[in-house]
Amino acid sequence: MLKTLKEWDFQLFIYLNNLGIESWDGFWLLITKTTFWIPLFFLIFLLIYKSYGFKNGTLVMIYFFGTIFISIVLMLTTKYFVARIRPSSVPELAEIIRTLQKPNSYSFYSGHASSSFLIATFAVLILRKYFRWVYVFFLFPILFTLSRIFVGVHFPSDLLVGAMIGTLLALLFYKRCKLSLERNSVKKK
Q: Which of 81, 94, 124, 150 is least crowded, fewest Cβ atoms below 10 Å from its Cβ?
């Protein structure tokens, strides 16, 4: 069963990776950089403070950054113990895939997928009652995650697990954050 799943993962990766078009390589290399998304992060911070004010906005940001920190620690720990090599390091794949980056860390699970889905999910949950359009933030993790296949550094299962963990962490910490915000509003009354 595990062997079959691994084979499907390899085949899906090869298929998706080979959909990449050379003229789009620059786009995917740009999208895959965390620094490209800094304006979006800045917008999220501004919207949080605009919506919640300084005191509650700071509380939200503590939960937000705390969740990101926990996600990073969990991802690095998992990568260390699972030690799955990247697609470009798999001998039978190296010659048949397009590789635009060659990171030297392990592949499972994707930190890009977990952090981007965490950021988007948390931002949407915390801001949706103030701005109905915030659901467009989900374009960020979708593009960011897809880029990891097109640059040749992650298998689909790395991305799927990363997206699920990021989303679950965001849901969990959003609920804790919401309870803290409710306690703050009760104290004010």
A: 81
pTM (2 decimals)? 0.89
If one counts the domains in the chain, the total is 1
| 34-70 as b/e: b if 16+ CB within 10 A | eeebeebeeebeebbeeebeeebbebbbebbeebbee
18 part of a folded domain: no
Q: Report if residue 172 sits inside a domain.
A: yes
Structure tokens at 87: 């697609």
Q: How does residue 188 score in pLDDT terms, banded at 50, 70 and 90? A: low
Contacts within 8 Å (CB) and 24+ apart, 48-57: 48/123, 48/126, 48/127, 50/130, 51/126, 51/127, 51/130, 51/131, 52/181, 55/184, 56/181, 56/184
